[in-house]
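protien #1 (seq + structre)
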Amino acid sequence: MLKYEIIGGKKLKGRIRISGAKNAVLPILAATVLSKGKNIIRDVPHLKDVEVMIEVLKYLGAKVCFEGSVLEVDTTDITVNEVPDHLMRKMRATVFLMGPLLGRFGKVKIFQPGGCSIGPRPINWHIKGLKSLNVEFKEGYGYISGQVKKLKGNEIHLDFPSVGTTENIMMGAVLAEGTTWIRNAAKEPEIVDLQNFLNGMGAKIRGAGTDVIKIEGVKELKTTDYTVIPDRIETGTFMIAAAVTGGDVVLENTIPEHVEPLIAKLNEAEVKVTCQDDKIHIQGNGRLKALEIKTLPYPGYPTDLQPQMMTALTIAEGTSIITETIFENRLKHAEELRRMGASIWVEGHTAIINGVPSLTGAAVEATDLRAGAALVIAGLAAEGKTTVYGVEHIQRGYENLEKKITQLGGQIHLLND
């Protein structure tokens, strides 16, 4: 089992470059199935989730070459339309292949996906959306199969602005006959990135980033060369880490507009944040002020930055309130933070945090990806040594986390227990 050992009390200082976005590159990799030939994707992070998606693409018959941050995917010889159970269990994002495989073959078979245990993320939303494109589904013992003679465009109104559902419908609709409208669509930047990638392949999509997306079906897609957007969650994680340690950090390769909700909250907590072009400069000036935060779909405050901000608020001045509206099990990290001396009371979807003067190092366990990042931040801010178990969760979404922290002067070591 991998673990991090962290010696806290160091102010993070310096500059680092933010990696490409995990939540953008995974659906983009799935979308390569829609064309025949070699797609080139740049600024791809080396992450466990990316490794799993590459493994799936190879299983389907693709040839994949990953050198540096450039990923070449040749889908010419793909013949398989089924994602096996053992790969589906490794990562939930394998569900993104439903739309592309239906577009390529008119058939798909998948098993129930795995991923972080942060609460229900219903696959039935994906199925309902793809059914609207003329797909017929059958369910068996743990698997779902879909079949369609011809995908047909339709007007689809989502019950909830789900990111994954929006992206799956987009990928299913690009080769459909006619026009598809997605209403109450998710607005996340990663959806805009997928639109740009698909349009680079010859798709006709407009409206990503708004709640209405229009997809005019085309007969075929070509290959493209594309650079993924920076990871806004990694950006936000390092912003919070810098603020909570009283640091002075410059983040390069960012899109400040993508983290505006976090910038607003940090300003409210009296942290100085300066943006210029693709750079964000964070200057911590002691303890943060207490905040009230409610997670919401984009452009609201992101659920993926809620655990990290909870860590920051454990040592803020005053009483803070966090309300989690996206995932019902995403307050598990509160218990681990209490091991480090935090004063947190959880009732349902709400956490009340009474700021304490400091945290104390302890042995804690990451229950999911973002909770793991929150515990690393806690370790950096705490007095003494913190051991974080469950590093495998963290490696799913952060490229070279320990190296970047060390580059900023933090004391962190990756060890095999």
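ok now protien #2
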Amino acid sequence: MTPVPQRLSNRSMAFILAGGRGSRLHELTDNRAKPAVYFGGKTRIIDFALSNALNSGIRKMAIATQYKAHSLIRHCQRGWNFFRAERNEYLDILPASQRVDEHHWYEGTADAVYQNIDIVDSYDIDYVVILAGDHIYKMDYEVMIREHVETGADVTVGCLTVKREEATAFGVMAVDTSGRITDFVEKPKDPPAIPGSPEQALVSMGIYVFRWKFLRQLLMEDAADTGSKHDFGGDIIPTVVKNGKAVAHRFEDSCVRHRADAVAYWRDVGTVDAFWKANIDLTGFDPELDLWDRNWPIWTYSETSPPAKFVHNEESRRGLALSSLVSGGCIISGTEVRDSLLFTGVHSNSWSVLTEAVVLPYVSVGRNARLTKVVIDRGVQIPEGLVVGEDPIDDAQWFRVTPDGVTLITQSMLNRRAEQA
């Protein structure tokens, strides 16, 4: 009998870069980093990278945080505290803590790893998977690690296949017919095409696999380079492309699908429009992202809450939800909810209507409110009779209205509106 090879994930760690604000999400990241932003009714964005690592068999993880990290750290402490050191499992949270000197915070993505070299050394691993903590997708990292070893690459870069005209917003990989990266171009006006596919290009996902000893030496050299920005995409990857062997790994080869013909789902929910759409897409009949797949679950902190409750059954005062996701602890009291996603603990009151609404946890909606195509931040108290989504000019006086017509509502916006009323 041929022995089954050991999973390479057993000799790997995941290093998640989760320090960015995500400024294009505007007020949604005023009090939390982008990876800590809520998504999908129960989860946070960072749960996808962490769940992918866990489901791939990786049991050693580190999360580098920086911008307004309290919400993110608290979430990880509550939802990801099941790792046991006696089983050789670890999840370390690594806030920027001036480990090099008292003036030296994380200066770039590569510097975040460099400042924690001693901690990674202590894991006694062979391979490190560098991950961005702010994207929505399902991926088996074991497939990518194995490709890295089999090709003898110095770095393997996770890549999305996109139309060439869409690639201008990304870092683009020029590759040869074997998949070796021959050039890395940041946001090019004329992106290089995939050999044999002139209308498509490969763009970086911000996912990298290295042998740790190789990356360790590279980080030491980069830290000593005063001209470097100490960034993976800007410095480390171009250096390996030039002086070593960099290989592109196509996401479709390791994407986890709930059925064979499903699309390779990946989203950067980095704008309010993209955030709203990705959440609303989940309310569809057969969403491209399957949160119900028990074979590849998305782990998270699950609050203890009662079931959702719907009350009143009168004309124009009926508690109902159609084509919507309603989380635990919600009370839909005489409110009509359509094509919407409600997070934990949302309470809505009589004669109100929510249409295409993404409502974050513990929002209260007053009576007779009509809210259409909105994102409502956590804990907001919607006053009685508020109408949003029907007059964009009036909405823009008080709230943030996006280019695609989504209205973002926060408590400070409502307070300012009330003061000037």
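The chain has two domains: 8-283, 309-419.
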